[in-house]
Amino acid sequence: MPAVNIDIITAAQLRTKTYRHVFVMLEERLGHYAGFREAFVDAFALTPADADGGAPGYFRAASGREYQITFLSRSGQRFPSGLEIHALIPRFDPVDPNALDEDLWYFLQWMIARVGGEWTVEALQATGRVYKIPWA
Amino acid sequence: MSAPELPPHIRQHFPFPSRFISVNGHRMHYVDEGDGDPVLLLHGNPTWSFLYRKFIPPIKTAGYRVIVPDHIGFGLSERPAREHDFSLENHIANVAEFVRRLALKRLTVVCQDWGGPMGLACAVLDPGSFKAVVVMNTWAWPEPSTFHSSVFPWRMMHAPVIAPYLFQRRNVLVERGLYLSVVHRERFMEEALPAYRYVMPDYDSRLLTRVFPRLIPLHEADRSAPTMQWLEKSLAKTTVPALIVWGKEEIVFPAGCAQRFKQLLPHAKGPLWVTGSHFLQEDSPQEICDHILDFLREVDKGCRP
To answer: Which of A29, A124, A132 sits opposite B214 (nearest CB)?
Structure first.
């Protein structure tokens, strides 16, 4: 697993105490390719029972910003079928989208490293370089 | 319904009145210029009718009615907000309904990228309404191209969680993908990129740019595979006059795809090779129009089946 600065944390470990949720992005088809759903199931110890009122997941980026992952359920699909990511921003602070994107780029590397197989961090980084992602 | 006001730097390249029609409950934007037998120009991902701006005047001047819609989710058409709203079948049904609503007959469809499966499906669904088809840099079968089956960069781009980041937060298909898929890049950046960027200003507006890649079948079990299998079998039975035009620099659907169309449509004229990468309409508009008009003259004279 590469050294990417993403810490999976619990709600009790959140340092941001009074925050607002800032929508970051939505993935409606977590099962589009095999392995991605399983990576989140393993990392957040999800069970089918979590589809019925289970707790969200949280992570902290190297920047110190913290994020909530809401796991989504859809009839006919295995749980989680999708996810939403929200940044937890101190209640009235402004948001710098580029700063969030930098955090998320490292989160994507963390995710890809857990998916494994043909999905490599090197391929993600190379894709990022082709498409001019500043942190790739 | 009023036409949206495009800024002058876009309008100067796209001076055509906007029209709107409701198809299957969605608001579709289109351009409709000229009189005569209709020629329907279909774009793909992530473009809109602007892609055909240099096709409209010469085809109109040659005596045809030129019709250029924006697919639902693109350009100035409605943008449904959920990924599950979209399927290849819904897109085909939207174009088919558009053709029915406008009562188009003796129709020629010119198609590229996703415009191919949509336009060709409409032609085989309603062969009595179609006079000819022109295929450019597209496909009509369930097997993916090498480009589409590779993890780097294509499948990685639209992998779970990565897709909303790259396509919607970073808008990479418009900001970088288009640039990488044309030959005349400086001209593109100055003249065209602002128009593609203008209609994809924010996260929600870019949803379809990441939905379409996921509709490309890679395996038999993928959701669009049955429709692509049906399309290939249906096309093999058609005798509609056809022209194949292909970009010499195309990498998304390489030269073998043009040859596969020739096998599928052995009566087709071509392939005719023009300077052009995937978005060959940006690279060689006049040359392609010349080929289309030569072909239509032959069809109108009954020189082709």
So the answer is: A29
- Cα A56 to Cα B304: distance, rounded to the nearest angstrom: 63
**Residue B270 φ then ψ, to 5°:** 105, -170
Tokens of B162: 């990565």
B212 CB burial (10 A radius; 0-12, 13-18, 19+): buried
Sign of the dihedral through C-alpha A123, B209, B291, B10: negative
Determine, for residues A133 and B177 on separate chains, whether the beta-carbon distance falls below 8 Å: no
pLDDT tens digit sequence for B234-253: 999 999 999 999 999 999 99
Chain A residues within 8 A of B170 when measuring between CB atoms: 101, 131, 133
Counted residue by residue, chain A has a size of 136
Compute the nearest-CA separation of B147 from chain A (Å).
Answer: 13
A88/chain B closest Cα distance in angstroms: 18
In the structure, what pLDDT confidence band is assigned to residue B81 with cuts at 50, 70 and 90?
confident
Tokens 């029609």, residue?
B21
- Residues A26-39 pLDDT 10s: 999 999 999 999 99
Smallest Cβ–Cβ distance between A25 and the set B165, B172, B177 belongs to B165
Q: How many CA atoms lie within 13 A of B40 on its CB side?
A: 30
Entry pTM: 0.96
Q: Are B164 and A26 inside 8 Å of each other by CB? A: yes
- Asked if B153 lies within 8 A of A101 by C-beta distance, the reply is no
Span B271-289, pLDDT tens digits: 999 999 999 999 999 999 9
**Residue of A22, A23, A24, A29 to mutate when probing chain B, most B C-beta within 10 A:** A29
Q: Determine the Cα–Cα distance for residues B133 and B40; give it in Å rounded to an integer.
A: 9
